[in-house]
Structure formats: C-alpha cells, structure tokens
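Recall from the previous lesson that a structure prediction takes nothing but the amino acid sequence as input. Here we apply that procedure to 3-phosphoshikimate 1-carboxyvinyltransferase from Halohasta litchfieldiae. The sequence below is the only information supplied.
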Amino acid sequence: MDVHISASRVAGTARAPPSKSYTHRAILAAGYSDGATVYDPLDSADPRATMRAVEGFGGSVDHSEASLEITGFDGTPEVPDNVIDCANSGTTMRLVTAAAALADGITVLTGDDSLRSRPQGPLLEALDALGVEAKSSRHNGQAPLVIEGPLSGGQVDIPGDVSSQYISALLMAGAVSDEGIELNLTTDLKSAPYVDITLEVLEDFGVTAEPVGATGEGGVRSAGAEGFVVAGGQQYSPEGGEYHVPGDFSSMSYLLAAGAIAAADGESVVVEGAYPSAQGDSAIVDILDAMDADIDWDREVGEITVAQSDLTGTTVDVGDTPDLLPTIAVLGAVAEGDTVIENCEHVRYKETDRVSAMATELTKMGVEVTEEHDVLTIHGSESTLSGATVEGYHDHRIIMSLAVAGLVADGTTTVTGGDHVDVSFPTFFDLLADLGGSVDRTE
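The prediction returns the following tokens.
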C-alpha cells in the first residue's frame, strides 16, 4: 500500500497505542508463568509473533477486546511441534531464542527477509558458552536459528553495544533456569532504557534481576552497567495475576512531531496516555523542548500538549534511544540550523539501516544531510521540504516519520509500503487523518 500525504495542518486529541516493548515482554513473562491476564496490550503484527511463540512452547493465548488471557508453560517450554515464525519481529526472535534454550530438544526460529538479515550471533555465542547448542543454519549469525537445550545457567560474556535485547532475553530465561545467569558486558551498554523496561516487567511479575556496577546516570537504572545477574529458580507471578501495558513513547514521538511542525495556528495536538515509565523514548519530550518546541507534559494526568513551533537545531545522542532517530531527523529537517544525531551506529541494525534510509529519503525531499558512520547531521537551514516518492523500506518507523515530514512538504509525498505500520501502530494513518492530515491510500 502506498500512502499519499499532502501539506496540511493538524490539531486535536489523540492516544498513542500501548507500548510494543512492554507488550512483548509482558506476553512472554505471562508465558513463563503458569498464567496471567495482560491488559491493554498492543494488537499488532510484532506482538502477535510473540503470542505464536508462547503457543508454540505449550502455552495458550485467548484474545478479548482489551486483554490477553495467557495460560503459560510455567518456566518449562515444550519443544515446538513446528518452526516458530517470528515474521518481522526482531524482539520476538531474540527474546524467544533464549526461551527456546530452556526446552529439552530442538527449536527452529525463522522470519521474513528483513529479520533473516539481522545479527543474532552474539546471543548464539552466549548460549553456546552456557552449554546450549545454538546455531545459525547458514553459519552467518543470522536466522534461521537452531536451538537445542536445555539451558541450566552460568556465567557468560556478551557485548552490550549490538542489541540490548540479547541481555533482556538472557535475563528473562535465566530467572527460571536452575542456576541463574551472570552476564559480563564486554563493551559499553547501549539502549540501557530498554533493559530497564525488562527489569521493570520482571519486577512486576515477581522476578528479581539486578545490574552490576551501574552508574544510574540520567535516572536510567542500567546506565553504565558492567553486567547483570539474575538468580535461577524464580517464579513468574504478577500481583493479582494481572499486568497493565503502558502507552508507547516511540509511537507518541510521531504525533508530537506532527504537532510541533504542523499544528494549526492557535491550536495544538494533545497526546493522551503519556504516563511516566522506564521508556527511554520519553526523551522525545526533552528533545523537543531543547529544540524550542512549545510543549508541556502533565505527568500526573498523562497528557502532552504541543503546538506548532519555530524549531532550532540541537545535538542528540541516541545511544539509549535508537528508535527516535527517524523522528529527530524529520524535526531537524524543518529546524533552523543543524541537528546532529550522534552515537547512532547501532541504529543501522534495525529493520533496515535507519541511518542510511533517513539520509537517502530526506535527500529526495530536498533536505541537506551529512551521513557518517556514527553521526547523522541534518542541515535544516539549507533545506526546503518538497513532496517526493520515498521508500518506506518495509520499516514502520521510517514510514511514519516520512509521513510526518509530508505534512509540511510542498506538494504531495508518497510513502511506499505504508501497510507496514501494522508492526507497531496499525491505526497511525487513520489517526493522522482524524487530526486533519491529508492522507490518501492506494493499493
């Protein structure tokens, strides 16, 4: 599906979907338990892949309008009857790879073309060091993956700068292993807030895991960690058998950006469901504030209000917030001066190389960009956004950010593959239209 966005103004109240990161972890945590109800989950393609994995391991997932009733495998996954298809969900594959290691037999995991190109090697090597047979079927560190357990636990080294999901996966599985797991990081930890999300969900499910040597810089519990430790033999059991998923700040970033660059004169965009949590991507509020946006966050009520603003460029380190890079790049395209996005090498290993993708597609729209290996600079003062046909790369975050850019580009912007927003924000284009955006879709 192609989506055509014409220059338009937006205003009104919107609610971002529930957090994809929390939903994944809650579904799997409920799977590790003997059963739990997950309220307000994100219903999109990626979490559905995690649901399939839980069912493959012997659990069950029953849907209702606002919840998932999950019967878990109680810490001991069965060997799946079939291959587990993780589709396009990297989070599913990494979290589930460690879960598969607990099964007493062979599990095969695969996914679509994009997922089969993403790095899994460090997680496989860590599992191998823990006594699990963990292999890439093509011997290239990428899916399909073949995992043969069972995992008993132990001590292992792993890098912290490729994907924090490796760490989350091992912590979740280690809690129900016999010996527990002690992780020693061989590099600095990036995306630390995502590990904090895992620690928060584990705590809500009655499981204890701790960072080792962390500085806690910026209020991020895992920041500066030298490693992590989780004791074995724990039981996943949320209080009252329930867990509630918070709103997603990654998804909110597109709505807030739309308000900051395209809100109608004298009006604003109000985003509901914005309650504080461990999500690092709540940094989008501080980033917009640093760019001189007219923005206010009522944390108690859970509402963020933003109006159209004359933005100025800033410097942002996305080491802990990689998913915000596409949004920041678009904000930089309309800001005065340069917006410098630093520490972004790891953003190249997402659904696509998001650094290169944003540089390429914004250039098509008339934006001056300098792309370096670990830095992306947007020269807003030298840019004039013009409508163009841009590639979505089958990547939900690229698609949504380019659509926001289309709101203030001269003419019409066509984004290819718009249906891939189903991964995290299925109603995105409907909501953008409800706010006043000129949105047209063609198959």
